[in-house]
Amino acid sequence: MFCARVRVLCSTSKFWSLGRKQPAREFTIAIDGPAASGKSSTARAVAKELGFGYIDSGSIYRCATLLALRQGIAADKIDEHISELASLISEASMEIRIQKDAGRHTIGLAAAAGRLVVPGVQVLLNSEDVSKEIRTPEVNRLVAKVASDRSVREAVLHMQRALAAAAESSSTTIRQKGKDIKVPGGVVMDGRDIGTTVFPTAELKIYLDASPMARAIRRWDELSNQVKDAAKAKRLSNSRNTGGAGDGQSTKPAVTVQADYPSVEDIARELEQRDYQDINREHSPLRIASDAVVIDNTNLTFEQQVYSIADLARERMGLERKHDD
Ligand SMILES: Nc1ncnc2c1ncn2[C@@H]1O[C@H](COP(=O)(O)OP(=O)(O)O)[C@@H](O)[C@H]1O
Ligand SMILES: Nc1ccn([C@H]2C[C@H](O)[C@@H](COP(=O)(O)OP(=O)(O)O)O2)c(=O)n1
User: How far apart are CA 249 and CA 242, in angstroms?
Assistant: First the structure.
């Protein structure tokens, strides 16, 4: 059930090299910020609100990291194998599929979003669904290191721009106050350097932030929901295999929810380390673009942040705001 689908085959697509002129765009929203500040969930919901395309640029760096892990490249050997890795990325095909409905894995997200629809995203690397594999602790640990290399960033930049060009929605006309108004098509992309490097002329740049503890707690909530979900699925499959549905006849012990996910403090440490690497790297570090609107969502609801960004975009497109503050 997909409402949008983009595919980029790196080796055959038309690319734009670093520094060359960007393709003309209608309306681009760049959302940057530190890890777990709410970028991707917000970007997906804003894209859905405005009928725009969406690209999660972090997933491209995560795919690059997965390629490195699968090649057996050790974390401390990345530098030695970087040109091999950059050509693997250039030869890879990647597809980002936007799902209409929030899937099982987004239960926490759906709760946070209230009545907002937050589409899920499926990521395909060389036609294989790697949506889950790119979010494992191994990838989390290595991704900032992989993303710090210039040749990797150059290969990913080509992919980002090509994916965005393919994902951009086309313009439509609406009737407002008796007048026909052109609504531009567009794309929302989230990451670390979208407003500074990838789309420096984006029509709207948002820098999303939240306190380190709020971010760690949100990630912990996500993990604990995933673990509970997995345990529930296992319980269901066990009860199916034993022919009962929790009827007390089963000889197998009930599956208990294992606390095999990290503590909030562990997550806070991991986020802090990754932020440090992203902020202090030489190439395209995480920075607040001078013309970005900074939103600290520590005390905002998910809906508040999505609606305020969507309304800011509407204002800049010459449209009426839809939500009152
Ligand atoms: N304002 C908010 N209040 C509470 N939870 C939020 C808010 N914004 C985002 N979240 C939740 O925070 C978690 C991390 O968000 P995510 O979009 O994955 O961040 P990022 O892409 O920056 O890593 C998700 O579970 C999301 O639903
Ligand atoms: N435009 C981007 C997007 C992500 N990155 C890097 C930096 C991050 O540590 C990793 C993973 O990004 P991702 O957005 O998936 O990470 P979080 O969801 O915030 O935990 O990729 C980047 O350097 N530039």
Answer: 9
User: Residue 137: what residue type?
Assistant: P
What is the complex's ipTM, to 2 decimals?
A: 0.98
CA distances from 49 to 108, 246, 316 (A): 20, 41, 15
Whole-structure pTM value? 0.85
Q: Convert the pLDDT of each residue in 191-217 to its tens digit.
A: 999 999 999 999 999 999 999 999 999
**Per-residue pLDDT tens over the stretch 276-297:** 999 999 999 999 999 999 999 9
Of the ligands numbered here, which is closest to the C-alpha atom of 36?
A: 1
Which domains, from first to last, does the chain contain? 2-316 (3.40.50.300)
Q: Is the CB of 274 under 6 A from ligand 2?
A: yes
Task: With beta carbons less than 8 A apart as the criterion, state whether 202 and 168 touch.
Answer: no
Whether the CB of 36 sits within 6 Å of ligand 1:
yes
Rounded CA separation 154/156 (Å): 5
